[in-house]
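Cross-check.
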Amino acid sequence: MPRKILLTGLYTDVLKAADAIDGLRLLGLREEDIQISQGVPHSARMLGRPHIHERIPWASIIGALIGFGVGFFLTYGTQWLFYSIRVGGRPYTSIPTSIIPLYEMTMLGLVLGTFLNFIWKCGFPSTRPHYYDPIINEGRIAIMANVDMRYEEDVRRVMSDKGAERIYEPERRPL
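Predicted model, tokenized:
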């Protein structure tokens, strides 16, 4: 099995970077083999990438439902199961007073679900070194292609034809 290498092409223009991604696709590279690192947030649509379906909305909804369940248990479950004190014919808990804890616990679950999913998606905390070049922070767009060594020259040619400022093999460095 041939060895894989990672080639990085630096671009200053978004259109040239999008053309390079199209050229790499024409060579037969899969979307999983192409990574983009950029200092300025360009949308996936600007670079011609497919839309990524995120899990963050689902994690938020599940977190909110769990929070609502915890709030419901704290409001009603504790009164019905553990502290059932009946005072003067009043109900154990009334709806107007239970709305506030239900709302607060629902929002807490929503925020925690979103935050934990974001931390998990970002891979935090990451202690291992990553491929990175500090020049990306100066407005460059880095397109990293993970290719077999036998296609290295073709990828270099496509990147240079599409206007790459520099093509090189990056080194892993701590962020």
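The two ends are 31 Å apart (CA to CA). The mean pLDDT is 85. Passed to J.P. for a second look.
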